[in-house]
Amino acid sequence: MSSSTSRRNFLKAAAISSAVFGGTTAPILAQETRKSADNRGLPKKIIFMVSDGMNHGALSLAQHSRSFFDGKSTNWTTLYRERPVVRALIETFSANSLVTDSAAAASAWGGGQRVNNGTINMDAGTAQPVETIQSLLKKRDIPLGLVSTASITHATPAGFAANVGSRGEEAAIAAQYLDREVQVILGGGQKFFSPELEQKFADRGYELLKNRKDLLATPADAKKPLLGLFSSGYIPLAIDRESKPELQESIPTLAEMAGLAVKRLDALAKDQWFLMVEGARIDHCGHANDAAGSIHEQLAFDDAIGAMLAYATAHEDVLLIITTDHGCGGIQLNGVNAAANQGMAPGIYNGTTAAFKQIASFKRSFEWMGNSGAKLSGPPLGDYLFDRTGIRLDSEELKKAQGLKSGEIAKLFAKRHGIAWTSGNHTGELVEFCAYGPGSHLFPGFMKNEEVRSRLLTALGAA
Predict the structure, then answer these.
(1) Could you tell me which CATH number the domain at 5-331+425-459 has?
(2) C-beta neighbour count of 36 within 10 angstroms
(3) CATH architecture, domain defined by 333-420
(4) What values do phi and psi take at 357, rounded to 5?
(5) Where are the alpha helices (DSSP H) in 143-244?
(6) Considering the entire predicted model, what is its pTM?
(7) Running along the chain, 463 residues long, what does each successive block of 10 average in pLDDT?
(8) Residues of the chain with CATH 3.40.720.10
(9) Rounded CA gap, 140 and 142, in Å?
């Protein structure tokens, strides 16, 4: 029996009801998962999805939010329950630290070795360039696509295609994308592409996209490489986009960008391709200790998972990887004991549910509020925050909140909704990694981050 027939029979037996998991399929057992993974051969295409800076707490809170407020599960957790997924834990060290930054983390994937924090694919010992996965794929005419909600020249996408001594050299990274012929480039970062560089992309045959209207209107099956730059810097945070109709009209979602990317890569190279999709701003919310922002970002990433799962379901030659490069901030929902005046019977953590409900009232990110309300104080600041968060701070708290410094605001709000942080820095825990589709059997249950690339290349027959 062929691997494709085996997979079709498995999915039929599992009674998967839809690409976005609308059914009530019984959970897949561990022995079924491994057996199915071992029998599916190797893929032709790889989608490598990164929820940048995602702690397990961020993954949990997205599921809690979707379950509690919407009565359903995230695509990621339903994938674990209903599909034959191979799961692993990843050690995320860089060459010079137990806690990595995104540049070193992405270089471990893209260059196959650990480098120093802040550098992108530069050997830690010799400071010489390391051959990138883009270079190896190009030798075999396998196109690469990069999609991100950060600037597309940011550390994570750059780790798959660039070599620079400092991650801040984003204009140089943009030029390297052209020289190295990255075929699909979608995200933020317009300011790093000079008009002259954009013209060079156009002269090389790239289609240039500037807004969501452009993205939705372009023929997905056109045989032209893509450069889509949808904001000057980072793509706006999901919580802000969801509250601003003008942002919804002009800025595409991660799911929309990824959906176009897979179709355009199919048009450019039906046989084989590699796509990296990054939900970058989970990390930024971790640095800012922005709980509501983090949940909305993780759910936006989950929507992209749904889109990629739908694609993988329709195409049996796709290996889907979903992971993160490191944790950030240490977000967790903590147990809350109800106060005596809340009218609840005494009980351990019996105020947790009521506290968590308050997160649904948040309509703006800390980033947005810090930019627009930082000069307010006293009652006007209180009204400003209440309108955007549903939380009313008292006069003493408002004194601490003045200036809207995210760390201080996070502590004040944590008393209300129960979501707190360990720091505003990256964290060093083992992180989640899962593989679904042909080739998933290549990944063991524990890996170092530098060991992932060789398995990706083996899966594509490009090792």
Answers:
(1) 3.40.720.10
(2) 24
(3) Orthogonal Bundle (1.10)
(4) -55, -30
(5) 155-158, 170-179, 195-203, 212-217, 238-241
(6) 0.93
(7) 43 39 59 60 96 97 98 97 96 98 98 98 98 97 98 98 98 98 98 98 98 97 97 98 96 98 94 97 98 98 98 96 98 88 74 95 96 94 97 95 92 95 97 97 97 97 87
(8) 5-331+425-459
(9) 5
